[in-house]
Design goal:
- The chain is α+β, with helices and mostly antiparallel strands.
- It is 29% helix and 31% strand.
- It has a single domain (11-184), classed as Gcn5-related N-acetyltransferase (GNAT) (Aminopeptidase, 3-Layer(aba) Sandwich), CATH 3.40.630.
- It binds coenzyme A.
- Coenzyme A binds at residues 38-39, 81-83, 88-90, 93, 115, 119-122, 124-125.
């Protein structure tokens, strides 16, 4: 890891959700597989120029990741990330994402990210967690990316939807919570 980087604790979390910070050299060992599972397409690890990545585990099972690099000392860019398919449509995703943002905003005054304008699930998740759209970019391949920023203040005021405490592990080991269970626990909120 770049020695000029902020010193961050290696692990943080809440209950059965645990995030682990891993340096680029460790992430390179699993990144292509993780991208393949999460995005359905591998990304050549040689393309990576990250400062660190964070891996989410739910009750010990790897369930998602985010790659990050510092723009400057107090500004972190969240580049790629997602939940592994077996963890989607599950309150663990929103809860884990909130835990991550809360932690990062204790260490950086602003976070930046880009989300494709067609990625409704990610946009909904982001807008629920305080991200503000501040611009858009045309990617070379005709894709439209929305640029978003988050800060401790925005994040705090967004925290109106309490994440449920009850996460269940299915027999296969993955966390499963049906949409109807999730709806019981998570009040619906229009964005
Ligand atoms: C983005 C991601 C983390 C979202 O997690 P998820 O568990 O799939 O999210 P959900 O299915 O709970 O969807 C989030 C919200 O979007 C809604 N949604 C999902 N697909 C939708 C669609 N096609 N149209 C409208 N709303 C949609 C869901 O109903 C949910 O809203 P609700 O909470 O009000 O019910 C996950 O889909 C993922 O990892 N995707 C692949 C990688 C990726 O796109 N990463 C982000 C790159 S910027």
């Amino acid at each position: 890891m770049n020695s000029a980087l902020k010193e961050l604790p290696r692990c943080f979390g809440e209950g059965e959700l645990k995030w682990t910070i891993v340096p680029p050299s460790e992430f390179a060992l699993i990144s292509e597989q993780l991208f393949g599972l999460t995005f359905g397409a591998k990304r050549n690890k040689e393309l990576e120029r990250i400062d660190f990545s964070v891996l989410l585990s739910v009750r010990g099972k790897l369930s998602g990741f985010v790659t990050c690099y510092e723009h400057q000392a107090n500004e972190l860019y969240l580049q790629y990330g997602g939940a592994l398919p077996e963890f989607r449509e599950n309150p663990a995703v929103l809860r884990g994402y909130r835990v991550l943002l809360g932690f990062l905003l204790e260490h950086y005054s602003s976070l930046l990210t880009r989300i494709e304008n067609t990625n409704t699930p990610m946009l909904k998740l982001a807008l629920r967690c305080g991200w503000l759209i501040i611009g858009l970019r045309l990617a070379g391949n005709g894709k439209v990316l929305l640029e978003l920023v988050n800060s401790a203040e925005q994040f705090k005021t967004s925290n109106k939807t309490p994440a449920p405490d009850s996460l269940r592990i299915s027999e296969g080991g993955g966390v499963k919570l049906s949409r109807s269970d999730a709806e019981k626990d998570l009040p619906k909120e229009e964005i």
